[in-house]
Write a structure and sequence with these properties.
By secondary structure, the protein is an alpha/beta fold. The chain contains 15 helices and 12 strands. The protein has 2 domains: 317 residues, TIM Barrel (Alpha-Beta Barrel); 65 residues, no CATH class.
């Protein structure tokens, strides 16, 4: 159903399961007691250099450091992190920022990290501390955001939304704008796998609609980039405007991304409990083993056979939410309405100058695949392309900035310029060339 690529494009690496906070909605918080929640160091797990070498060997393009709280484990993993940075892998980090110190800031900079995604549950200290289950955490995170921003690091804030803070999205958006954040995300809290009863927290359909519209109000009022960090069923959106703005994500689990747990076990995504092998035994084996996540076998029949949106316009909802709410990975996403989704707002397509010269993006990287190659500009902008297009892009590199035209592309394929135009358009819209 989804093409199998040789390895993920991007990976979440949980440096530790330990955390300085105890957020009530967090999948770490609800994990069973055999997993440590304190700040102790784990023994017996694959060393960070082994993990790093597997990521490099498999040609992963981007790694997000996460946890637990990754700032607590930076030093422990420094040798492995340095290896991946030297190999040219992009590194990002998800952190609550409460433990940011000068030393840690220095490490982040040395790893080439220019932007941070942090978590803040409310603009109000009392509510945030209640939800993080940790007194003083609001102040600590606010100080961390200030420190990062004043040191030239771009900070985006993710607000995990439950029934407890749904009413505070706009004030929180305004608050983070005033702190100097460049982006604001409001993301529905997924039901943590080991939480017996999440009803006091879990949004319902109306709450979700409210979250979407409030998020768009934040964009209008503050000018911040806004987003929501989950794949939502297309039929869960109330209208075309919210679907167009916030419905662009598909489920990447086992298709283009996966998670390396603190213990080295490979999972399809951070929310999933299923493991497919230890990275120390070969990342490739674990990646191959996740076949069911890309075959379409887990997607409900209605999505596959009747809806018409799957797989190109909707991924069929979140499999982990489905499992946590219906006890089956093949179940229906609790926010799927099985109704016709609202149409996206048509976007005016940019028109390219057919005589212009196009240059490949700076730092464009390639990875060989069974069929063609992946050309990667950034985690949002990459494509599986034909070898001929890849050769053209690489050839242009060596010509040192001369670039190529629509005519060159047409000649490469032996087709008319008219037929080559959509390919050029795709390359430009994915920012592989400009
Ligand atoms: C588990 S945290 C680890 C990184 C760091 N401790 C932090 O809080 O940013 C990774 C991301 O997951 C988000 N998150 C935590 N629990 C969630 C849930 N139940 N549903 C959706 N997102 C969640 C956090 O806000 C954060 O953006
Ligand atoms: S700070 Fe992050 S890892 Fe820690 S409990 Fe909160 S969401 Fe989970
Ligand atoms: S019915 Fe399934 S495929 Fe269709 S929009 Fe809803 S979740 Fe997506």
């Amino acid at each position: 159903m989804f093409r199998q690529i040789s390895a993920p494009v991007s990976v979440q690496w949980e440096l530790t399961s330990a955390c300085n906070l105890n957020c009530l909605h967090c999948y770490n918080y609800w994990r069973d007691s055999s997993h440590p929640k304190g700040l102790h160091v784990l023994h017996g797990n694959p060393g960070s250099e082994i993990i790093a070498k597997e990521l490099i060997r498999n040609g992963v393009f981007q790694v997000t450091l996460t946890g637990g709280e990754p700032l607590t484990a930076l030093n422990k993993h420094l040798s492995g992190l340095t290896l991946i940075q030297e190999a040219g892998i992009d590194i990002n980090i998800n952190t609550n920022l409460a433990l940011l110190t000068d030393e840690r800031l220095h490490i982040l900079k040395s790893l080439g990290i220019k932007s941070i995604l942090t978590s803040l549950m409310a603009h109000d200290a009392r509510i945030h501390d209640e939800l993080s289950n940790t007194p003083g955490s609001f102040e600590a995170t606010r100080n961390g955001i200030n420190k990062a921003v004043s040191n030239g690091i771009k900070v985006a804030v993710n607000m995990v939304v439950t029934k407890k803070n749904l009413a505070m999205i706009r004030e929180t958006g305004q608050f983070v704008k005033n702190l100097g954040a460049v982006g604001f995300c409001a993301t529905k809290a997924s039901k943590p796998s080991s939480c017996p009863d999440f009803t006091a927290y879990h949004l319902n359909q109306a709450d979700l609609h409210h979250m979407f519209t409030e998020l768009l109000s934040v964009k209008e009022e503050t000018g911040l980039n806004v987003d929501s960090l989950e794949h939502y069923p297309a039929c869960a959106f109330p209208d075309g405007i919210t679907r167009t703005a916030l419905g662009g994500r598909s489920c990447s689990a086992g298709k283009t991304g996966c998670t390396i747990g603190f213990n080295g076990l490979v999972r399809p995504c951070s929310h999933a409990q299923q493991t497919y092998g230890n990275i120390a035994d070969g990342f490739h084996l674990a990646w191959q083993a996740m076949h069911e996540w890309r075959s379409g076998d887990l997607v409900p029949q209605y999505c596959k056979n009747d809806c018409g949106e799957f797989p190109n316009r909707c991924g069929g909802g979140c499999r982990v939410e489905a499992e946590n709410c219906s006890h089956s990975l093949k179940g229906t996403d609790p926010f799927c309405t099985n109704s016709v989704p609202p149409a996206r707002v048509p976007i005016t397509k940019m028109v390219l100058d057919k005589n212009a010269t196009f240059l490949p993006a700076k730092g464009l990287r390639f990875r060989n695949e069974d069929v063609g190659q992946i050309a990667y500009a950034s985690v949002k902008n990459w494509l599986l392309i034909d070898n001929k297009v890849a050769d053209l892009l690489k050839g242009v590199h060596t010509k040192n900035g001369v670039g190529f035209t629509l005519r060159d592309l047409a000649l490469t394929f032996g087709v008319s310029e008219e037929r080559a135009y959509p390919t050029l358009h795709l390359l430009v819209s994915k920012k592989l060339v400009s």
